[in-house]
Amino acid sequence: MKDRAQRSIAECRLIAGFSEEPGRTTRRFLTPPVRDVHAHLRGRMEALGMTVHVDAAGNLRGMWQPGGAKPDFGMARKRLLLGSHIDSVPNAGAFDGVLGVVLALEWARIAREIAFRLPIEVIAFSEEEGVRYGVPFLGSRAVAGVFDDKMLAYEDAEGIRMEEAIRAFGLDPGKIGEATIDPGKVYGFIEMHIEQGPVLEAENLQLAVVDAIVGQTRLGLRFTGQANHAGTTPMHLRRDALAAAAEWITQVEATAKAESGLVATVGTIELQPNAANVIPGQVDVSLDLRHMNSRIRDAWVRQLTRDAHRIAHRRGVEVAWMEKMNEAGIEMDPTLTACLASAVESAGLPVKRMPSGAGHDAMVMAARVPSAMLFLRSPGGLSHHPDEAVREEDVEAALVVGRKFLEQLAAEVG
Ligand code: HGY
Ligand code: MN
Ligand code: MN
User: What is the pTM of this model?
Assistant: First the structure.
């Protein structure tokens, strides 16, 4: 498995080269470099004997049928779903999402080698990060049957509507409903992913099984003041949208520091007219709020938006906000997670269970099919950063666990 681990890491680094920008990895929903990723993964899937198609939400899907029979997608036996996402944040690392797809293909290879008896569908989800249209999980929402067609009218930074982006990729947005999986035909979904945090490294552990994924809310806020001359406008006559937003952003940080289990991030800011000698008249910011408990998270959304109004009003600035997403926290399936944990144990590794502070496609899939996640250690606890890494021995461990898991499942389902 060592050589396969080395090849998997090399493959993630190869895929990281498919980017919208030279010299760094940025791959948003259905942008041109996604075609290169699809071409590469399609070759890998077909070499494993899979039948491959791209659904109308841009998910690349490879179906493997035991015994090599040409699979029909309405097949009888319940299938095992494996996969993760292939889109990235701007200036990303090479492993967030993609490693889970590469490992899924390696698990499918092992399934062939042990004459596994369930069909396997590997899914490379088209969009999990929510960078291009401000809403995450577009791919897994379509597979889980919870894609909201209103999103097709959302525009990206270049003013391209989502439905136009889907058509430009050669897909028909009218057929997104056909991407939905029938839960009656699914045994379960397993997503492998880097932890993206410091816990496993701090405890000197290679892998963990995830017991729950925290909930997340994403808002967009617009502060509107008065653009004016930076030199001639006295300080007491200003309605500075950026100063108002800045005061509110420090309030957000103070709030999150005071509430255990809450993390809050203002990750994007756009100001108009964005000139050094003009008082900012308009500022758009994002808010990413996470907590396991939806009631607590919703209460802080209310409090922080009240704070925004209070600060803005005192400064003669207006503020408007909209909720872009509110994804509840969710438990992973206990039975499937127990199977995964027992495979970790039979691989001779300690069984660590932990929640995920990062969102994943598994949180959308878990509402429809039994879902479980396997974390790999993140060196330096770093992610959403070009220095994001994974250790060869941990990738090898995930492959050994894969063999144990598939052998266990084969013994169970016959
Ligand atoms: O933002 C997240 O939690 C994930 O990395 N998309
Ligand atoms: Mn991810
Ligand atoms: Mn991510």
Answer: 0.92
